[in-house]
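Title: Prediction job returns without error message
Component: structure pipeline
Severity: low
Priority: P3
Assignee: unassigned

Description:
Job completed but the reporter wants confirmation the result is attached to the right record. Sequence as submitted:
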Amino acid sequence: MKTLNYTHISFLILAFLLIGCASEQNNSAEFIVENAVFADLDGNEVSVSDYKGQLILIDFWESWCGPCLQVFPAMEDLRQEFPDEFQVFAVTVGLNEGPEDARRFAEEHGYDFVWLYDENEIFSQLGGQGIPFKAYVDPDGNFIKLEMGSHGRQGDYNRAKELLAEYFEGIN
């Protein structure tokens, strides 16, 4: 029988610590997302809980972000296909732009999104370091997952539609 040496024990301790940290980070993200409150472009509070019953994509973006803008038409397609089941929170992060920049963009493009500003720094609290950065919330208001980056227009469309199919009958 083999015995454990200090290297093995150190590795096991590190593994348990990493698993614990990952679990704590996920619980933290869950709490942040489920209790997220943003400001709409007129300064009114909008909460994730206001949209229970819908799958919510919280999409952190800014108008200079090419990958963010590439996916917007696909998310608009999903909004048109599933208006009662799918909601997009287009949340301006505030890296280089403010609410007025987002308002101009929204007025020019006409996407059927809930246009918001991240005045409570939800993006930073979730560990966001770049955009696009997405969080998904299920119809019961529970955090599902975070995603960094983009899978392109079709890839992001397919990923969101797969989540819709998980929560709503008749969507495939």
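Comment from assignee: result matches the submitted record. The chain has five helices and seven strands.
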